[in-house]
Amino acid sequence: MTTQPVMPEPYVTVIGLEVHVQLQTQTKLFCGCSTRFGAPPNTQVCPVCLGLPGSLPVMNRAAFGLAMKAALALNCRIAAFTKWDRKNYFYPDLPKGYQISQYDLPFSADGWLEVADPKGAFARKVGIVRVHLEEDAGKSMHDEAVGTADSRIDLNRAGTPLCEIVTQPDLRSPQEARAWLNELKLLLVYLGVSDCNMQEGSLRVDANVNLHVPCPDGRIAKTPIVEIKNMNSFRSVERALAYEAARQYDEWQATKAELGKIPKQTRGWDDPAGVTRAQRHKEESSDYRYFPDPDLVPVTVSDAQVADVRAAMGEPPAVLRQALAERWRITAYDAEVLVNQGRELVAYYEDVATRVADGKVASNWLQQDVLRTLNERGGMIDTFAIRPEALADLIGRVQKGDFDTSRGREIFAEVLASGRSVADVVASLGIAAVGDDELVALCRELIAENPKIVADVQGGKEQAAAGLIGQAKKKNPNVNPGKVRQMCLDLIRGR
What's the CA gap between 296 and 294, in Å, rounded? Predict the structure, then answer.
C-alpha cells in the first residue's frame, strides 16, 4: 500500500502571539485586595481597583519581581528606567475606563525563547518583542439560556497583576505555536511566576496571523493581519490558527485585486463550530490614547537587583532537559517527558536513577508505572506512596534477577495498595530468588523432557526455546524467564 506524499501549503503562515499571564501574588498590582480565585463575585474590590475618585494606586513590589524573573528567563534586556501609562478604552468590565499598563518604556524587551520538537520535526527560536506589566480587567459573564439576554460583571479580577509577553511574528505553523506555548507555560510554572491555569484565566492567548503567498510574477502577497481572541486552550489556539490560515487563503484567492483594501481585523474563535467570526476592526495604538499615569512614579532597576533575581531563578526546563539527557544517557524524548512533569518529579527521578545507577531503567519505570499511576489516580509525586528508595529497591531486585519485570510490576501494585515495604511484599507472595545451581538443574530437566525443542534450537530456530519458559514457570513461579531462556540455550549449545 502506497501513501500519497504530503503537499506543502501554497503559502507561508506568519504567527505572532500575545500571552497574558496572571502573576502568582497574594494581592493585586496596585492595591491590597486579594487575588484568590473563586471568591463570591465583587467581594475582592476596593476604591483603588474600582477606580473611585480620590483613590491612589501603589505598586506591588512582589509582582514586579516575578515579572522580572519571567523576563530574564525569556532572555530579555531589563530596562534601568520604566514608567506606567494609561491605556484608555471603554469595556463594561474595565471600571476605571482605562487600564494601567506600559507603552513606550516597558520594563523589558528584546528577548527570545526557543522551542524544539523532541522528535526533530521542527526547532524555532522565537523573538520576544517585550514583556511588560499591566493590571487585568474584570470578567463579563453572559447568560446564554434560551430567551434571556442577561450579562453580569465580576470585578474581583480587576487589578490582578498581568505579565504580557509579545512575540515577534516568528512562528510558522499552528503546531509550532502550540509547542511554543507549552514551552512558555512550563517555564513560567518552573519559575513559580504563575500557575498558568487556563481554566481559571491565569493564562490567556491572543494570536496574530497572516499569510505570505508567493505570486507567479515573483512578488509576495501579504494578507492583512487578523488577531484571534477567545481561545481557552492550546488545542484551541492550534485549531483556530489552522482554520484562519485556510480562511485567509480562500479569501485571498477570491479577492486578489482588492487585497490592499481589506482592513486588519479582530476575530473571535467559536470552538464548538470550529470557525473564527468577525468581531471588529483591529485597533491601533493611537486608538488607546496612551499617556503617562500621573499617580505612579517611575521604577528604576539596578544591575545588582537584576543579578539577585537571576541568581534565584534555578535551571530553566530547556537546560534541565539537556542536563538529564547527558547525565543519565536518556533520549531527548524521555528527558522531555520527565521535565514536563515538573521539578518535583525530576528530583524523584534523579534520586531513583542515582540509587540504581541506570538512568534509562529508572526513566522506564517512572514513565510506565509511576506516571501511569499518577494519571489514573490523580495526586502529586511529592505525596506518591512509593518513595524513591522503595522504587529503587524494587528495580534493584529486578536488575539482580531475583524476578523479572512482570513480577516486579505485581510487587509494585501490591506495595502501592498495601503501603508495605518491598521486602515484606516479596516475602508475603512467597517470591524467592532462584540460585544458579537450582536454575541449572531445572533447565537440564526441561531439556531432557523436550527433545523436539532441543532439535529445533540445534537446527537454528532459537525462538523455539520460548516453549521452555512456560514450563519452567509452572515448575517454579519464581524463575526469571530471561535467565531460563539463556541458560537453556547455553546448555543446548554445550556451553
Answer: 6
